[in-house]
Amino acid sequence: MIDRRTFGKVIGVGAAGTAAASLVGLSGSAAAASSSSGAGAEKTTLPPDSGDRSFPMLRQVRAGELMVGYAEAGPADGPAVILLHGWPYDIHSYVDVAPLLAAQGYRVIVPYLRGHGTTAFLSSTTFRNAQQSVIAHDIIALMDALRIKKAVFGGFDWGSRTADIIAALWPKRCTALVSVTGYLITNREKNKLPLPPAAEWAWWYQYYFATERGALGFEKYRHDFAKLIWHNVSPTWNFDDATFDRTAAAFNNEDYVPIVIHNYRWRLGLTEGDPRYDGIEARLAAAPDIAVPTITLDGELDPFTPAGDGAAYRGKFTGPYDHRTLKGIGHNVPQEAPEAFARAILDVDRF
Fold it and tell me: Cβ contacts of residue 190 below 8 Å, gap of 6+?
């Protein structure tokens, strides 16, 4: 199995030999895991991320109301894959996935979401809105700016929600989908209903963010806050300080705190979004089905993984479909299990 320290040398077109060999080393184990069989994909045996790798070049492009910062790997004329990070994470969740896909000939785009890293608002007066539909619009605008007509999407956390929305509402822009934790499109009315106490406990921070004390605490302790979340939701991931610090640099964006606070308050119905997106939100509240080819991934140790091996959301995916549970893996699936994530992207594109 390839040592993770070598990945920094193979990002981009030159990755073909080493990264491709790493994927072959899976021997199809990830592809064999499905909800029907109940089998789990093998946990990656790569050593812990040491935080000494990064993307060799970051780019920016004007897209919609943003200047979007993004990493790119692979041939410029390859089929596009767009990988979307979550919170509290950044593009480095895919630092090991991107070279694997680039080695297979894909053009891999990994953008910073609004409020993160080098993505910035073009105007100081723009509403710092983080409702679900506007983040999806950001990615559509990015695709238009990069002249990408269609892409395979992969995401986790906020990234899964965004990819799900694009697959549901703009299926002509989505070749296929890999979605961690399945169907995450938010219905704010249903979100008002209480969950069992154990499930509510996992979401403790969204209630903290609902208070002014929480907003002030998050502003003051944003790095410590994120590190605590990492430990809580990925209990077996042995990341080091360098790995965390590499991502935490993305939290220094001046819009990071307003965007995160607005996102969670909006989900709970405590603040409003932009009226221009009311029609789209109404469509999303109806929980539209997703018909594009899809693989859903669940981290076995992720506290947000619903019980039932994907059964809770199976009915929302009406096209070609597979489900995989990753044994011993927590919330940050692409960084904890990069080979399994990359394999899912390759497999779903062949459905």
Answer: none
- The two structure tokens encoding residue 109: 């785009």
Q: Which residue has the tokens 């899964």?
A: 160
The span from the CA of 102 to the CA of 81, in Å, is: 9
What is the DSSP code (8-state) at residue 22? H
- At residue 208, the 3 state secondary structure works out as helix
Do the Cβ atoms of 230 and 332 come closer than 8 Å? yes
Encoded tokens for 258: 């307003």
User: Residue 18: which residues within 8 A CB-CB, separation 6 or more?
Assistant: 2, 6, 9, 10, 103
- 124 token code pair: 């100081």
- For the chain, first and last CA: distance in Å? 26
Sign of CA dihedral 195, 196, 197, 202: negative
Rg from Cα positions in the chain: 19
Give the model's pLDDT for residue 23.
62
User: pLDDT tens digits, residue range 314-348?
Assistant: 999 999 999 999 999 999 999 999 999 999 999 99
Write down the H helix ranges in the chain.
16-24, 29-32, 97-102, 132-145, 158-169, 197-202, 204-209, 212-220, 222-233, 241-248, 256-267, 278-285, 333-336, 338-348
